[in-house]
Amino acid sequence: ETAEFEIALTKGYGLEAFREDEKKFLISAGSGDSKPTMFLISDTQIINETFLEDINNILNAGEVPNLFPNDEMDRIIGDTRAKAKEAGRSEAKDAVWQFFIETVRDKLHIILTMSPVGSALRVRMRMFPALVNCCTIDWFLPWPDEALLAVSARQLEGMQGVGDDIKEAVSKACCSIHQQVLVTAGVFEARLRRKVYVTPKSYLDLIGFYLE
Asked: How does pLDDT run along the chain (212 residues), one tens digit per residue?
């Protein structure tokens, strides 16, 4: 079973609170009864670029320098020593800590969701190279007609007082409108050098207009 962690942005949430959240998922992945751990964060939650600096360090080295004070580090080492011994590692403090870091690198998976709109993603990739070197990047490409039709048909299923033939027609209309907007956005960019982003969220919003 995978442990899942996210941050909850609240009033006053800052670097100190983020580092406390970091400790939780690092300990989950590396200390004691370590388990596969996932940390999910989106670009809208990155309110301080130091968040990404820390994530860059974790991706690259498996730790954030000076994150744990000495007493917490000693506690982690104590909880991890038995596992290190089982793995045939030395029980010395430095060796156990290194085993903790290696376990974190093995069991922690960080999922970053970022929009390519604007220059933020490009700048962050240059500033924090581990986002490229230590990650697998999934680019979400435009949906084909089959996917658009399947989504609209599913969303429109619950419409009350509307016949199936009307639902099917609306579903096809949504798909056609979305594709035409994509083509028009391309023409707009070619002529005026201005980019208009048409995303799956735009398509879901279009369907929502009919549901309303």
From this structure: 889 999 998 999 999 999 999 999 999 999 988 899 999 999 989 999 999 999 999 999 999 999 999 999 999 999 999 999 999 999 999 999 999 999 999 999 999 998 877 788 899 999 999 999 999 988 877 888 999 999 999 988 888 888 889 989 999 999 999 999 999 999 999 999 888 888 888 888 899 888 87
Closest by alpha carbon to 46, among 100, 9, 87?
A: 9
- H-only helix segments in 31-69: 49-61
What strands, in cross-sheet order, belong to the sheet with 108-113? 3-6, 37-42, 108-113
Do residues 180 and 196 touch, judged by C-beta distance below 8 A? no
DSSP secondary structure of 110-157: EEEE---SSSHHHHHHHH-THHHHT------PPPPHHHHHHHHHHHHT
Q: What angle do CA 47, 111, 100 make, to 5 degrees?
A: 100
pTM of the model: 0.73
Q: How far is CA 111 from CA 3, 46, 70, 136, in A?
A: 13, 13, 29, 10
Collect all residues with Cβ–Cβ distance below 8 Å to 13 and sequence separation of at least 6: 7, 47
Nearest Cα neighbor of 128 from 46, 22, 39 is 46
